[in-house]
Amino acid sequence: MVKMVGKFLESSLGPELIEFHESVSGESGLHKAQELQPDIVICDINLPGMNGFEFCRRIHKPDFNATVILMSAYDENEDYAIQAKEAGADAFLTKPIKKGELLFVVNFILRIDTLNQTVLGKNQELQEDQRRLNDNLKDIIQMNSKLESQNTRISFMNKELAERFDSTVGLLTNIIELNQSQHRGHSERVAEIAVFIAQKMGLSQDSIESLRTAARLHELGIVSLPRDETVEEVFDEGKSRPVTSHPMVAEMLLKGFAGFEPVAELIRHMHENVDGSGKPDGLVGDQIPVGSRILSTASFYDHYMVAHPDNSILEALKKVEQSIGTWFDENVVSFLSDYALSQNQSGNEKTVSCSVFALQEGMVLASDIYSESGINLLRKGTVLDRDMVNKILKFNNVDPIAGQVQVKS
Ligand SMILES: [Fe+2]
Questions:
Q1: 3-state secondary structure of 15
Q2: How far is Cα 233 from Cα 129, in angstroms, rounded to an integer?
Q3: CB 20 within 8 A of CB 9
Q4: Which residues make beta-bridge pairs with 401?
């Protein structure tokens, strides 16, 4: 019967699709199936040596993927189909076998098998894609780690560059003030005032940093003036608006250096007036860069304070306010008032004067320390350490410290 089934399938589906093998017993069938790994096993339930159900149970091993069709003669007292299902058979046919029914079942199995192969292939492709994705993910994680490391290095380099830039500006500020001992500390004070106003006005951090540098260097062009004109210039700012071209000299000196372009622009316009009567371009109101308007106001205020040491902060402020709408921007002056009032309050903070020889580690400077020749040695707010105290004492032997040192009590 099985041979007849095999021959029928071969002739119906073609030898290229069906290759038929036959075994004469259950035991030999198991060996042959293990050896050939067929796609379909067709088995009668009556076999020599074992029945088809046992054959079905024994052939189903984890690495065996064949579809098993059991067949049997009809018996009205037995439900062989249920027993076949329990034994693990994939299909059950009742003899006499109808050719159409057999072809239908075999075709169905072959189609399922093809689908399984397709799904298996897709699964392998998906697994390969997943493996590639995992590899890419590992590469990305490694690249991120390297980038983080490089960013950290760049951050350190940027910090170092910023510190070097700040030191260079500090050196220039010292050189500027060597010839202006009577205005010692003016540049740093103007920077403090200008930054205060810029922060209150909500300027960007980049704009604030450019303004801070412009304030520290705003009198760079004065080094080009003859000595007697220098003295006249710095004092004159407290009385009337200056007429010299030192802002343009500073602009020319600075604008050729990378990073100083915005600084040069702010200094160029620091003597413009909001009513258009200023120099060098006669700009009006908002045409004047806001940093230049701030710089102009802050510089005037501090020059006035230095030129009139007996006047109070409020009197200096009143002097500035008299020029709102002509020289100065009203908005800028309102924030200068905030600064002046905050200084008036902090002026009540207790400070003590002491000799350079009384300086000790841990003291906080209430004002900058300058040498007699005008060199700014340490800035206000610095907390002294042992090394700083020793260096100040040694410097004092070469270029004595000017006056008493103010420290916070
Ligand atoms: Fe100034």
A1: coil
A2: 76
A3: yes
A4: 371
The first and second tokens of residue 199, run together, are 């922060």
Residue type, 213: T
Task: Give 366 Cα–ligand 1 centroid separation in angstroms.
Answer: 22
Q: 6-45: b or e for each residue (b if 16 or more CB lie within 10 Å)?
A: bebbeeeeeeeebeeeebeebeebbeebeeeebebbbbbb
Report DSSP state, residue 382.
P
Give residue for tokens 């050939």.
Answer: 36
Find the helix packing angle between 261-268 and 290-307, rounded to 10°.
60
**H helix runs in 237-289, sequence order:** 246-254, 261-268
Compute, in angstroms, the gap from residue 266 CA to the centroid of ligand 1. Answer: 13
Helical (H) or strand (E) element with 41: strand 40-44
| Residue whose token pair is 């019967």 | 1
Q: With 70 as the cut, is the pLDDT of residue 231 above it?
A: no
What length does the chain have? 409
Closest-CA residue to 93 (of 81, 108, 104): 81
Ion ligand 1 neighbours (CB, 5 A) are: 299
In the reported structure, the alpha carbon of residue 57 is separated from the centroid of ligand 1 by a whole-number distance in angstroms of: 103
Residues whose CB is less than 8 angstroms from the CB of residue 40 and which lie 6 or more positions away in sequence, other chains included:
66, 67, 68, 69, 106, 109, 110
Q: How do 369-370 and 67-73 pair as beta strands?
A: unpaired
- For 219-253, letters b (16+ CB in 10 Å) and e give bbbbbbbeeeebbebbebbbeebbebbbbbbbbeb
CA 220 to ligand 1 center in whole angstroms = 10
H or E element that contains 370: strand 369-370
pTM over 0.90: no
369, 235, 342, 255: which is closest to 299 by C-alpha?
235
- pLDDT tens, position by position, 148-207: 888 888 888 888 888 888 888 888 888 887 766 677 789 999 999 999 999 999 999 999
Query: Can you list the domains of the chain with their CATH numbers?
Result: 2-97 (3.40.50.2300), 179-348 (1.10.3210.10), 349-409 (3.90.105.10)
Percentage of residues in the chain with pLDDT exceeding 90?
33
User: What type of residue is 182?
Assistant: Q
